[in-house]
User: Fold this.
Amino acid sequence: MENEPIIKVRNLIAQYGEDVILDNITFDIFKGEVFVILGASGCGKSTLLRHIVGLDRAVAGKVIIDGVDITSCTDNAFHNTLRKIGILFQSSALFGSMTIAENIALPIEEYSDLPKNAIDHLVRMKLCMVDLGGYENYLPSEISGGMKKRAGLARALALNPEIVFFDEPTSGLDPVSSAEIDELILSINKIIGTTIVVVTHELDSIFSIAQRVIMLDKSTKGIIAEGDPRLLKDNADNLSVRHFFNRQLQAERPRIHN
Assistant:
């Protein structure tokens, strides 16, 4: 990792109407790392992601991506910055009426002047990267949930982004498919050097992929832990953090019946 963060979030306040979701959030994400935003349901994980990528506007604070403050920059600078990022949404967000190949080709057609044969070649390359070679002409309804996630990832990688965001990438998947997605995330990070930002509450994924995490808390509307999850599991000062990381072990303990 380089010393200079590729993403800086400073004093961010996220609010919907009168409801403050995140209050004065500050943290850094460094180039080339796998960074996880975690916490219990309703703590503002997806809200934070939406504000980082500019889908929602912050009430106050800054989000700086590769030197550009997207909360105050020009429209042209904002759109140029968006080309540096890819997003895999929780639902995969594939267009049901388009084939897998057409879904992946869409951002390439939108943001490049490449001829059709070159785009077709790039699409096949992206599909092979996520182990979906040969599925170009399938519709999203004709493939499994895990395959949809991989197709969504192929589309997120279409423009060779420097940063890829994942919103609950293993949600709703069986353990085998979840492990495959985790392996793909690690492979992309290791082979290409892509900065990975993941929103999740899945412990297996957190311990498998995360180099560093922040944990959000619904009651404080802020960050209650930051660091290596393997260290936070047993050494966090906050009891809620230790309970979060050890909840599987607690769930496995047999109940004592009177």
Summary: The chain is about 40% helix and 25% strand.
